[in-house]
Amino acid sequence: MSRAAEQVQTRAEILKLARLLGREADELSYLEVLTPADVRRLRDGVTESLYDAHDGSLRKLAAASRLLPSSLIATIAERAFGPLLSARVAGLLDLDRAVEVSGRLAPAFLAEVAGELDPRRASELIASIPPRLIGQITRELALRDDYVTMGRFVGHLSDGAIIAALSALDDAALLRVAFVLEDKQQLRTLVATLPRARVRGIIAAAAAEELWVEALDLLHHLAPAQRRDMIKATLALDDAALEAIVQTVLDHALWPEVLLIAEHDGALQDRLAERLASLPVRRRRAALRDARDAGVLGRLGAIEPALTGA
What is the per-residue pLDDT across 102-122, written as a single tens digit (0 to 9) for each? Predict the structure, then answer.
């Protein structure tokens, strides 16, 4: 992974840590010097501290809940415990009881609980929640712009629940969730479940909402055939969108992602090369240095002469 690509992943990890701490990501910008793995280890450590602080008391509370009917537990959860305490107890309940209780809770409240829950501690419960309810929770999380929570849960959902969740998201939200997905190796499988029309929609959303960092990051994690579909959709964009792609590449030195484009489509190479060739000499030289540092020179096709002035 290039340093530029690593910095993009670090920003994604900082978004997750900020969500856990209830802070704005900009407040943690000083962590951008760390690797993605370092930030993730920090987040895991914070999570363990939060959950271990009152583990004994929470286990006693979960054990006591066995004496109460599910309807009463649900009422207590919403009216007395609140989302934070409910999230801490959720993974300690008997699985069947926890599923039954979740079915009695409002989707809006479950969305709040999801934001406080460590999915690793409730993986069986999450996998057992009916797809219909997962779709409702996903819609609630999307209304709150809580993409980090959705990204943390994907790896624990059943296949049916994944389809329900994807159906509940618009294309821009899907792109934002993909950027903060906990395990990006899942992206190939997730994109494979989408109709091809949604791939075109994702590219259109990237253009409309200036989500090119997220789109190029997604491109980096897809299979070759999936990349071709995304690149083909990009060809239909206007010059303003291509300008935005070039600007994103220059701002973040995402030359390995440009290499993926160069390897798949000559027509898009030509359009990007034309835009790069029109840059002032100083900016082209800076871009050339970044491309050289990323180790992609000699592999960029028609884009390379635009950088070198050849």
Answer: 999 999 999 999 998 888 888
* Cβ proximity of 168 and 142 under 8 Å: yes
User: Rounded distance, CA 62 to CA 81, Å?
Assistant: 12
How many residues are recorded in the chain?
A: 310
| pTM value surpassing 0.90 | no
46-50, 207-211, 235-239, 242-246: lowest mean pLDDT where? 46-50
pLDDT in tens, 46-57: 888 877 766 677
**Amino acid identity for residue 135 in this structure:** G
Alpha helices (runs of H) in 103-193, residue ranges in sequence order:
107-116, 123-128, 131-143, 147-153, 159-167, 171-179, 187-192
For 42, which DSSP code?
H
Enter the DSSP assignment of 157: S
Q: How far is CA 34 from CA 30, 39, 89, in A?
A: 9, 7, 33
Q: For the chain, what is the mean pLDDT?
A: 89
Taking the C-alpha atoms of residue 191 and residue 172, their distance in angstroms, rounded to an integer, is 14
Measured in whole angstroms, how far is the alpha carbon of residue 139 from the centre of its chain?
Answer: 16
127 contacts 165 by C-beta, under 8 angstroms: no
Query: How far is the C-alpha of 100 from the C-alpha of 23, rounded, in Å?
Result: 33
